[in-house]
Specification:
42% of the residues lie in helices and 24% in strands. It is α+β, with helices and mostly antiparallel strands. The longest helix is centred in the middle third of the chain and has 27 residues, at 120-146. The relative contact order is 0.12.
């Protein structure tokens, strides 16, 4: 499938026609990334806004001691680079593809200014998208810092009708913004207590009253 058609299908699918016309598709570039491949790095001078068409990305922050902290996970049709654009700052975090089928569509700041500067709906879209992302990140950090992991896992089970499916525990730990080691420890606690049952790629609540009690502590 040609790049232009892929872009048009994405715009139609997510109802972005009020932001971009068919004539705008030539302003975008497509690039495919493999799992673990860096897309942009912290402190890079960023020149584009990026749209996730397929796959997904992980966002990390690296401390001075070299330790990485998982910040957020984004999937289609979420975007990144808009915070840096609106705030006129360099890239805040490291961004890495988390799937072998990660397809990214980008448009340069220069092309936005030259061709879309009068599109107030685009500016509103960018503002809303950045606000939602920041709120999502802040909530994840508050949950991690302010509550016991037992409560976080319990709330996640309740929100998903007491059944969580995942590709791997490593992926689930990233989604919950906790370490793999702590997640496996809490899962074992719930299993030993007869509260949950774990299969290879799923967790099922056995004692809903107990899980509800843990989740209401948040």
């Amino acid at each position: 499938m040609k790049s232009g058609l892929i872009i048009e299908n994405f715009i139609d699918k997510y109802k972005l026609n009020n932001l971009f016309s068919k004539e705008n598709t030539n302003l975008f570039k497509l690039k495919k990334y493999s799992k673990g491949e860096n897309i942009v790095n912290a402190k890079d001078e960023i020149k584009n806004i990026y749209f996730i068409l397929s796959g997904g990305i992980d966002i990390y922050s690296f401390l001075a001691n070299g330790r990485s902290i998982f910040i957020n996970k984004l999937s289609p049709p979420e975007i990144f680079g808009e915070v840096e654009y609106l705030g006129e700052t360099s890239m805040l975090f490291d961004v890495t593809a988390n799937s072998n089928n990660t397809l990214i569509m980008s448009i340069s700041f220069k092309d936005i200014e030259a061709n879309l500067s009068n599109n107030y709906q685009l500016w509103r879209f960018l503002g809303v998208a950045s606000t939602k992302k920041l709120l999502k990140t802040n909530r994840a950090i508050l949950l991690k810092e302010g509550f016991n992991l037992k409560n976080i896992l319990a709330l996640h089970l309740v929100k998903n009708n007491h059944l969580i499916t995942f590709k791997s525990l490593n992926e689930l730990s990233k989604e919950l913004n906790v370490s793999y080691r702590n997640l496996t420890r809490i899962i074992k606690f719930f299993i030993d207590s007869g509260i949950i049952k774990k299969d290879r790629k799923s967790i099922l609540t056995l004692d809903k009253d107990a899980i509800n009690e843990y989740s209401t502590e948040i």
